[in-house]
Amino acid sequence: MPELVFFSGTMDCGKSTLALQIEHNRSARGLQGMIFTRDDRAGEGKLSSRLGLVTDAVEVEDDQDVYAYVVDHLSRGGRADYVIADEAQFLAPEQIDQLARVVDDLGIDVFAFGITTDFRSKLFPGSQRLVELADRVEVLQVEALCWCGARATHNARTIGGHMVVEGAQVVVGDVDQSEDIGYEVLCRRHHRRRTTAASARAGVLSPDVLPVDAVSRT
Ligand SMILES: Nc1ncnc2c1ncn2[C@@H]1O[C@H](COP(=O)(O)OP(=O)(O)O)[C@@H](O)[C@H]1O
Ligand SMILES: Cc1cn([C@H]2C[C@H](O)[C@@H](COP(=O)(O)O)O2)c(=O)[nH]c1=O
User: Fold this and answer.
1) What's the CATH code of the domain at 181?
2) Is 122 in the pocket of ligand 2 (CB under 6 A)?
3) In a designed cystine with 93, which of 57, 129, 171, 174 is the match (CB 3.0 to 4.6 A)?
4) Residue 82: how many CB atoms within 10 A of its CB?
């Protein structure tokens, strides 16, 4: 049975790498995939991994009907044995429904990759729809780590290394503290306390370092 699979995790946990491996393994066996992406850091029409691999992809536009795009490709004699959609959190909920239709009406596997929640730990609309519709949600095996060593489960947006909670939901960027605006993956405890690696180093007061009395009053 064809499936809609959502591979989800934090930033920097290997989603794009896995997407490229799936593409490599299938194309090595003569299958032809259709690859969608949106707002990859490497630029328009690219699917890239931090390991340095990159491939061409179809850049999904606002209001684009991805189901119609696949049908049009097939009707022109093209092949699509499977579909990959990276940065799927940036797709509109309607486009996720269209991917589900690719599975159900065309019998094609769709592998979607994306982060589930934004820097405020709120679901992206596209990811919410994927959780609602996917046959399977897969959490990646290689865990990204918080600075404290715990499994990273949340994405923080940082300015100058310090976590911010105001701003637009979509700001394309990397897990890079040298940039003005960057991202850092954290465990839930440190995301809740807004303690990034830089603020921990700077000894910024957080409930982690407050006296027990003070913690019980907060
Ligand atoms: N220099 C490196 N050596 C080994 N692995 C690396 C290196 N740089 C990045 N990685 C691996 O690549 C992962 C990020 O892969 P990527 O596919 O770009 O992530 P995602 O798409 O989830 O943001 C890191 O978690 C790490 O496992
Ligand atoms: C948390 C968060 C992330 N983004 C952006 C930043 C990156 O461009 C992508 C995630 O890419 P990755 O391959 O998973 O690292 O999403 C955003 O726009 N808003 C956010 O809140």
Assistant:
1) 3.30.60
2) no
3) 129
4) 19
